[in-house]
Please model this.
Amino acid sequence: MPGSPPASPAFLRTRAVTALVLLAALVFGATLTGAEPAAAATYVPISGAGSTWSQNALDQWRANVKQYGMTVNYNGTGSSDGRNQFRNGTVDYAVSEIPYGIKDSGVVDSPPSRKYAYMPIVAGGTSFMYNLVIGNKRVTNLRLSGEVIAKMFTGQIKTWNDPAIKADNPALANALPARRVVPVVRSDGSGTTAQFTTWLSKQHAGLWDAYCGRAGRSAPCGATSNFPLVPGSGFVGQSGSNGVSGYVAQGNNIGTITYVEYSYAVYTTGFPVAKVLNKSGYYTEPTARNVAVALTKARINNDASSPSYLTQILDDVYNDSDPRAYPLSSYSYMIVPTQLEANFNNQKGKTLGAFAYYFLCQGQQSVDNLGYSPLPINLVQAGLDQVRRIPGVQQESINIKSCHNPTFSSNGTNTLVKTAPFPAACDKKGTAQCATGTGGARTPTQIGGGNGGSTGNTGTANGGSGSGGSGSNGGTTTGSGNGGGTTAGSATAGAGTAGTAGGKGGATAAGTTAGAGAGGGAVDPDTGQAVGNGAAGGGQGADAFAMPVTSSRSIGSGLRTALMVVAGLLLVAVTVGPPMIGRLLKRGGAS
Model:
């Protein structure tokens, strides 16, 4: 400017350096923002309530999306309360195992006036977790038929040494204690109770109606979210899935049994579950694969114009004749709003939609680790279509193949169904049961029979043979007669001779507990089949299907990209900056 004093060299030097630093800072900030839009904290918090059956999966997903700036609140208050809260508009979404409109004790659970849709979120099995010991050793391989379960939860079977339980468990028959059976049921309105009592009403209606009559309810009893209690029955009521499973898991509550999602045995408490007899005559547990097999028989409402779109009818699941099927398999729903309301705006819809996109795709990858089964491709695709109905959602075009869901295959068939192993011979009704554990207690059952004899010598990994001990009161299937040795890699286990059965106790050959084979984990002492990772006999491997995936929304990858861009800009600044400053200084000196 004319008349202005010339700028000093120091001033020009400072101005040049400051300009370069500001340029780098601005580009750095812009790079981070552009590379990580999901982490830009543009989401408003949302809240939901309902199912505890699904809660372990929901809690994991909620924790995972915090890195993207989402706050998703959830209270596991039970499916009935979740549906009530959604109907009253006090939550943004609800989660339930059953839809609206079901008649419970003569009262219809009426749908809300607000517009809504059902969205499948995760599949799983309602299991029967128990606490039973024999001779201070935990039983982990209990088997129960549907009729026995129904009689236990209607007060018809009162002790653990009941002949009907013995018939399901030949290997434990002479050791089962005369301890009282204590059913632990939900005291709150529960989707898990509704699922269990739907099964009871469809498969064992006579027993269920008679029990409801003693509890003061009219017949037919049908499904109910509130388990009826008969005064003096000795049943224990607890609130929530954590409540019932936590009660059973207490060390001094031996003799208890409850119905709860498999996750609470596998992931929360580390307790065993009963293998349940299916229509094919095999006892199975609700592993991800067995649930996936069973749900191929679920009848799904595919009428998109129906208010019950995507709800399930499970009668054919209960009666599935596939030897691998678990009879009490199902999936749960999220109930989402489909129009704007006073308490639900576009900003909340954006958060809810982004959360739904996450759990329908990435979130399904590792649910097996939590004790659930990933949704099949048809339900994921239907769920993605439902997300588009949420007002305010930022619609995404998701290539469903990039979800890496363990059930998906390139031709649309269910991979878990194709790879699900058939049960071992020792899971067949009438046979001495497998010794391998179940649920979260995979240690094989090892129980000496009565005053039974000593354990036989263990065979070597290369085929050495061991002879079982004999006992005056007979050994049980597990414990006496350790014949087969531990296998390593492709080595063949030794052939052992079973312990002698004195009295009425029949014993079978039982190898050592768990040989770590280089080719595929432990060996079932009853069947000689591999269990654990890659098990062919129904054993559950750790993380059998989860596949790692690199997410375009990953914080780590976005940050790396940003830093690489900034590094390039700084390199340019270092290269170009000194000559620029030099020219400015020269110009300042010449002024």
Q: What stands out?
A: The two ends are 12 Å apart (CA to CA).
